[in-house]
Amino acid sequence: MHLLPDPVRRFAAWCAVLLLVAGVGWVGIRLCGELRTAVVPVLLALLGTALLGPLYRWMIRAKLNAGLAAALTCVAVVAVVGGAVYIVVAALVDTGDQILASLRDAAKAVARHFGAAGTGLDDLAANSRKLLEKFGGTAVSNVISGVSIVGESIAIAVLALLLVFFFLRDSDRALKALRSLAPGDTADLLEAMARRAFEAVEGFMRGTTLIALIDAVCITIGLLILRVPGAVGLGALVFVSAYIPYLGAFLSGAVAVLVALADRGFVIALWALGVVLAVQVLEGHVLQPAIQSRTVQMHPAVVMLTITAGASVAGILGMLLAVPLTAAFFGVVGELRTRYGDPS
To answer: Which of 15, 64, 152, 203 is the most exposed place for a label (fewest CB within 10 A)?
Structure first.
């Protein structure tokens, strides 16, 4: 004789399952945080493999050796990323003096406005030694920390690139290894789940790349019409930063407006701001729902929630990885539902 009604027992069972899943997920996140220098390159390499897979398969169909095709694919991505970074840096260097002059003029205007309150530039110069003595140690430690972060980021990028090469070249071996590790007769199921998850990640990368390309082209055309210097470089910055949801668009747009303000004045800067905002509205209301929801098979609201959750867990890296990981999860769930769901 059961003490609780059947609906209550089912609810309790589901609660126990959710608590177990949440506990396992929390432990997994903690372990990934502790092993981030090894986990992050693997995740980034998976994203890179999903993005570069079509190019690699095209080379294989062209009768190239698997190792040579993987190497050429990695060289291509290094050339594209390196070229984009060079264009961005060159454009910003060309307008760097103008940007600094604009900021200096703004600082002088603020100082003149608040000069009566003792915040003029002369007062700041007189107190600079005291400020340096007070905060110098913190500044030095922050610089050292920043250098270590840059070094770690470079090491992660190099390791991720090497892993992309091996993931592309040895994808068949990895699939055979997965099948060999499958318990019992679950090899076909594990392979199908892995394929569905990877296809979902590929869809995310294709959608993000298409959206980034459209954003970059639109903003570049707008900046060229406004005759903003370094428009091509700023467009390249928009394309690269589009892989960081929300924050990347804000940073690249801010740089474009700042360059326009430095070289072309306040009115043109307002027009540049209008171009950036128009493109962002186009992305948020047209491109994201039409492209990303189809390639990832996720509702835009789910995409926004996963990005927010990823940011709260792992910052910018979490924002970058949240959607593809969630898409992979939904791909696995879809495969399980197809195989074991109710046929009616």
So the answer is: 15
